[in-house]
């Protein structure tokens, strides 16, 4: 029979915890790439290439300016954690606009942007705010804090299932539910913490975080749901404005 510790670990691992995932904007009609793009008029093909080059230049410029600031803030605010961020681009076809912070197989902090998100960003300020937000998840240690909360939730609900006489399947279901509830308990709080510190980081790199937060106007509003993972967009924008107004 598996130990309770192992069962809790499996329940928490099933969540695949990461700092956050940026909700995808609604799909937009765009010219096809590849063979279909070759059928477009020469002027449209040139415009597509120019837009792609501009998006790539914007992203590279933002990473070059924001990453050193994020690493400096990380070193100033933390002790004993790796502040050497790795920035990755997910170039798989069909991946929607998305960005998230995670830990790579070597235990290093990693931030991943999809190509679609890089292309969707309206300006460098949006990219800088998103990059600062994701770096802030690592600086605030949200992954280990989420994992600890998930483990506690799994232990509590799993323990209750055991003392009430649930069988192995019932206990495992309770462990999974407890882990999910525990992980979600502070999710919205963590998002707001990352928005606040991300504002500081983007501002420190010379970008306008208020303009960057206009990104929220184009993504689905999660509303004020019980155990929701993201706060209402209006609350996030208001927070960014308050923090930005307090900066020199």
Task: Note down, in words, how this protein is organized.
Helix 1 (about 5-15) packs across helix 6 (about 140-165), helix 1 crosses helix 7 (about 170-185) and helix 3 (about 40-75) runs parallel beside helix 5. The chain has a three-stranded mixed beta sheet with strand order 1-3-2. It contains ten helices and three strands, in the order αααβββααααααα. It is globular and about 70 Å long. Helix content is about 60%, strand content about 5%. The protein has helices spanning about 5-15, 35-40, 40-75, 115-120, 125-140, 140-165, 170-185, 185-205, 210, 235-245; strands spanning about 85-90, 100-105, 110-115. It has a domain at about 5-15 and about 40-85 and about 125-145 and about 185-245. The chain is mainly alpha-helical and about 250 residues long.
Keywords:
248 residues
Set down the secondary structure blueprint.
Layout: H1 4-13, H2 35-38, H3 42-77, E1 86-90, E2 99-103, E3 109-114, H4 115-120, H5 124-139, H6 142-163, H7 168-185, H8 187-204, H9 209-212, H10 233-246
Helix pairs in contact: 1-6, 1-7, 3-5, 5-8, 6-7, 8-10
The DSSP helix count reads 10
Low-confidence stretches: 4-17, 27-33
| Secondary-structure element pattern, one letter each | HHHEEEHHHHHHH
Helix content: 55-70%
Mean pLDDT: 78
- Structural class, by secondary structure, is mainly alpha
Alpha-carbon distance between the termini? 59 Å
What can be said about the biggest beta sheet?
A: 3 strands, mixed
Strand order of the largest sheet: 1-3-2
Number of beta strands: 3
Radius of gyration: 20 Å
Q: What does the overall shape look like?
A: globular
Q: Per DSSP, what share of the residues sits in E-state strands of 2 or more residues? A: 5-15%
């Amino acid at each position: 029979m598996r130990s309770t510790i192992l069962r809790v670990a499996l329940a928490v691992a099933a969540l695949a915890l990461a700092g956050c995932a940026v909700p995808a904007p609604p799909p937009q009609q765009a010219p096809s790439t590849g063979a279909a793009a070759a059928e477009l008029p020469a002027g449209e093909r040139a415009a597509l290439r120019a837009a792609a080059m501009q998006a790539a230049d914007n992203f590279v410029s933002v990473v070059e300016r924001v990453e050193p600031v994020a690493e400096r803030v990380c070193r100033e605010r933390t002790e004993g954690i790796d502040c050497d961020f790795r920035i990755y681009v997910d170039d798989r076809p069909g991946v929607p606009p998305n960005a998230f912070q995670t830990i790579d197989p070597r235990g290093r902090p990693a931030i991943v942007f999809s190509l679609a998100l890089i292309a969707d960003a309206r300006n460098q300020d949006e990219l800088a705010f998103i990059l600062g937000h994701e770096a802030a998840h690592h600086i605030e240690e949200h992954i280990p804090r989420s994992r600890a909360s998930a483990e506690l939730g799994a232990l509590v609900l799993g323990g209750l299932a055991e003392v009430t006489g649930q069988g192995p399947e019932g206990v495992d279901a309770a462990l999974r539910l407890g882990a999910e509830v525990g992980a979600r308990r502070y999710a919205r709080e963590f998002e707001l913490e990352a928005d606040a510190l991300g504002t500081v980081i983007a501002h420190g790199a010379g970008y306008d975080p208020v303009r960057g937060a206009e990104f929220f106007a184009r993504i689905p509003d999660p509303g004020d749901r019980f155990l929701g993972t993201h706060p209402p967009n209006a609350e996030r924008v208001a927070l960014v404005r308050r923090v930005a107004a307090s900066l020199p």
